Amino acid sequence: MNRTVSFDDLVTEAKALLAQEGRRFMALAGAPGSGKSTTVEHLAEALAAEYPGQVAILPMDGFHYDDGVLHQMGRRPWKGAPDTFDVGGLRMTLNRLADPAEGAVAVPVFDRDLEISRGSARIIPAGVKLILVEGNYILLDQAPWDGLRPCFDTTVLIDVPEDELRRRLRARWVHFGLNEEEIAHKLDGNDLPNGHVVMQHSRADLTYQQE
Fold it and tell me: What's the rounded Cα separation, in Å, for the pair 124 and 131?
């Protein structure tokens, strides 16, 4: 049964996973602008002193299709929608990370300034015991995303009011220099509709409600 938790509860849940044998995975999903990356970074920081070197972050954004591929698909204006990610690549990476025989694993990183994914840009060492996986769609109950579910030990959905999402997303696109027409497309043609998909079709053990 899903239950609502605080940030301190997330820390407690993460510590419970770290106390178990083997490598564990906590998945944190949310709409665009919900603060997934910030939440995960704060969670990793909260664990760092007690569990040095044992926690790593794996963002879904590293598995964006390249812009050239999106142009071929006719989906470049909708970059960030569920069908613009290499879900199979993410699943294979999670499988590799779950296999002790793999040792250290290289993972891709999305460069937001360049708007591209850089392959093998970061190494997750063999000694990491907990991987915090974050992304918009990783808990969707729709194919192919639902194929990720067996990879996760604990799942969290971050819940943020839509007016706050709109404020944060608008500030993001202003920061990147978009004009009003471009911002309107990003917000109402892409980001917020994608957020509705996330909140309506994600299934999680826990809901973290931000104030």
Answer: 9
| Interval 52-63: pLDDT, tens | 999 999 999 999
Cα-Cα-Cα-Cα torsion 157, 167, 184, 87, nearest 10 degrees, comes to -20
Identity at 54, one-letter amino acid code = Q
Q: Taking a C-beta distance cutoff of 8 angstroms, is the pair 26, 95 a contact?
A: no
Q: What type of residue is 1?
A: M
DSSP string covering 105-160, please?
Answer: EEEEEEETTTTEEEEEEEEE-TT--EEEEEESSTTBSSTTGGGGGGG-SEEEEEE-
What does the block give as tokens for 123? 């190494």
Q: Residue 100, preceding bond cis, omega within 30 degrees? A: no
Distance of CA 63 to the CA centre of its chain: 10
pTM of the model: 0.94
The CATH number covering residue 28 comes to 3.40.50.300
Residue 130 dihedral angles phi and psi, to the nearest 5°: -135, 125
CA distance 16 to 38: 21
**What number is the average pLDDT over the span 107-128?**
93
**Mean pLDDT of the region 149-153:** 98
77: containing domain: 3-209
Number of domains in the chain: 1
